[in-house]
Amino acid sequence: MDLLYRSVEIILENQDASGAYVACPTFPTYHYCWFRDASYVAYAMDLAGCSDSAARYHDWAVHTILTHRAVVRRGLKKLERGLLPELGEYIHTRYHLDGSAETDGEWPNFQLDGIGTWLWSLSEHLRLTGRSLTDEQRQAIELCVDYLVALWDRPCYDCWEERPDRLHTYTLSALYRGLACFAEVRPAVPDVLSRIEAAVRMRAVRGDHFIKDLDGEDAVDGNLVAVALPNCLVDPSDPIMHATIARIESDLRKNGSGVHRYAADTYYGGGEWILLTAWLGWYYAQVGERDRARQLLAWVEAQADHRGDLPEQIAVNLNQPAYLNKWRERWGENARPLLWSHAAYIILRHALNRSVETQIKAYPHGRQSSEGASTCWPSSTIWKRLCAWLPYSSAPATK
Predict the structure, then answer these.
(1) Which of these is catalytic: 9, 37, 46, 158?
(2) Which residues are paired to 94 by β-bridges?
(3) Is-contact 359 353, C-beta < 8 A?
């Protein structure tokens, strides 16, 4: 089984008719579309040559943002008067697949990083496909830029939906990249970018490395790779980034295995995360340490089950083993397949080989189309769904 091809298949199979990517189809708690997860998935699909799939997601994102525009603008007006918006007046971190708001007030929904990541992902989609902004896309971008400019320095939940009273290094880097992608939209953006960079460099460094939260304890998080890649707040070769990677290696990888979220993590016992391991590999590929990147790629591939499904995390080298069964009793087995895990794998394969689209089209089970382009051969059960999205000219005969 070629895990690259299987990863594309899994993602396409689990893209809703609305264009939304469900976080995990078999894990009821994750039956939503998160801007964060889905934006990385869309980027991976662009790299794989599945730009129509990515476009459908971005259409969903634009529609969802504009559907809730009035209440978000109302919240921004409150901020101008020195008042805090109500919970429903924020752009939610996740929505139902049809774009409607998730209304469980006990589950944190005020997270800013996903909107920054969506702006970056949309920018990459336009760059990779050569497409131009539509009027609706511009309207959604303007709303998101206004939203992030107004809220960037307010504490919110981090990307793991924890620590709502803090400013998070990963979150700020995601906002930095998203705003930088569309800096021309509002005159205030360049100043905000400078303030974000200054805040991270002055308040998110302990000794020689970045830390998880501004003004926090001396602890790293696996997501800090993003400060350099893809968020470009610092260059991957920056000495602070090098030291941060070294701390991730020493604190969050046990026995040279996968990457943990952070040392005190107890979610499902605090196991090793597929997407973070692939992300670290992406970094190594970017800085030319290809052997290290290939080792991490091999580890990720070894975690796929007999169907080619990658989980969210694996229960080895647990931080707190006693918490594993507690979470299983509450929510069942760990999420599998997690679409973000498969997306991270595609991104790492691309970083090492620079053309996963070519690999997809040259998949051994493919055939030559009438126009001479190599095409994939998906399983017949989902072919009709796939052929409308992948750049294939015709479908194979049903087996």
Answers:
(1) 158
(2) 34
(3) yes
Assess whether 217 carries a catalytic annotation: no
**Those residues with Cβ within 8 angstroms of residue 352's Cβ, 6 or more apart along the chain or in another chain:** 281, 285, 290, 293, 294, 297
Topology annotation, domain 3-361: Glycosyltransferase (1.50.10)
- Of the candidates 13, 98, 161, 289, the residue annotated as catalytic is 161
16 part of the active site: no
Distance of CA 229 to the CA centre of its chain: 12
Cβ neighbours around 215 below 10 Å, total: 11
> In the predicted model, what is the mean pLDDT of residues 248-276?
96
- What DSSP state is assigned to residue 186? -
358 has pLDDT over 80: no
Determine how many CB atoms are found less than 10 A away from the CB of residue 276: 25
Question: In the numeric block, which tokens belong to residue 232?
Answer: 């470009």
| Band (398; pLDDT cuts 50, 70, 90) | very low
Please tell me which residue, 366 or 111, carries the higher pLDDT value: 111
Residues whose CB falls within 8 Å of the CB of residue 269, separated by 6 or more in sequence, listed in order:
315, 318, 319, 320, 321, 322, 323, 324, 327
pLDDT in tens, 10-19: 999 999 999 9
3-state secondary structure string, 312-352?
A: CEECCCCCCCHHHHHHHHHHCCCCCCCHHHHHHHHHHHHHH
Instruction: Please write the tens of the pLDDT for every residue from 232-247.
Output: 999 999 999 999 999 9
In terms of DSSP H, where are the helices of the chain? Answer: 3-13, 35-47, 51-67, 69-80, 113-129, 135-151, 169-181, 189-203, 239-252, 274-286, 290-302, 322-331, 339-353, 356-361, 383-387
Choice among 21-30, 80-89, 262-271 with the minimum mean pLDDT: 80-89
- Choosing from 37, 89, 272, 312, the catalytic residue is 312
Give 281-331 pLDDT, tens digit per residue.
999 999 999 999 999 999 999 999 999 999 999 999 999 999 999 999 999
Q: pTM of the entire structure?
A: 0.91
pLDDT confidence tier of residue 7, bands split at 50, 70 and 90: very high
Query: Over pLDDT 70: what percentage of the chain?
Result: 89
Residue 157's φ and ψ, nearest 5 degrees, are -65, 145
Tell me, yes or no, if 161 is annotated catalytic.
yes
